[in-house]
Amino acid sequence: MTMEHGDKATPDKAVHRSPGDYLAIIEPLMDAAHADDETAFFTLLDDLTAMREKSLFQDVGHLTRQLHEALTNFQLDSRVADLASEEFPDARQRLDQVIALTEQSAHKTMDAVEEMMPQADALITRATVLDESWNRFLRRDQSADDFRAMVGEVSEFIEETGAHAAAIKTGLSDVLISQNFQDLSGQEIRKVIHLVHEVEETLINMIRMTGRAGVPMDRKAAVAAPLPSDGEHRVTSQDEADELLSSLGF
């Protein structure tokens, strides 16, 4: 009893043989060897080898094809190309614009504060002088000339207070206006955050596609891994990879 040489397993399912299946070939193989039937012997020997290797060969071939197609699809994904060629540069420009707007607002705010500080100091100084004169008046420790001088100082202080208050109000308005950049910068930052989420999803899909999710990388082992020697065969193009897989029947 022999197995026909042309008998093949289905390509999509691994074939699991029992010891009896191997015995069905080994016994005729021994008979052919004793009979010195070279043709039958080598035919049966090929069948025996094919039975052992067919399942593993098919599994490796299918895994290779799936990995090859997955990597090819990822490399040719137009969305990935758009992210690299358009979205990333656009995101950098948006962040640069946010930085420029932030710096511009900061400078305007500091300039406005620097202009308001001397005016506030002047009001504090005049208020301190008037406070001393007013306390002397309450203690009735002023002459008529001192009282008339205090009245003049109060009049000047009221006038200066109006001018300084108007200038401070203008400065505060400038500070408020300079903060309007936050609306625009917030929109730009949200767009960049959306891009980051999209990149994250793309990377997660790539990890799932390659079946490496949850497997930690041994960085030391990766660094220490030997590089292929110059004599080793390399597949240098997409066409060669497809041709190699096709030649193997996958």
From TrEMBL:
Assigned EC number: 3.1.3.-
GO terms of molecular function: phosphoprotein phosphatase activity
Keywords: Chemotaxis, Cytoplasm, Flagellar rotation, Hydrolase, Protein phosphatase
Subcellular location: Cytoplasm
Signal peptide residues on this chain, from the entry's feature table: none
Gene Ontology biological process: archaeal or bacterial-type flagellum-dependent cell motility; chemotaxis; regulation of chemotaxis
The keyword Membrane belongs to this UniProt entry's keyword annotation: no
Keyword Protease tagged: no
Gene Ontology CC terms: bacterial-type flagellum; cytoplasm
Oligomeric and partner information: Homodimer.
Function (record text): Plays an important role in bacterial chemotaxis signal transduction pathway by accelerating the dephosphorylation of phosphorylated CheY (CheY-P).
Descriptive protein name: Protein phosphatase CheZ
Organism: Kineobactrum sediminis
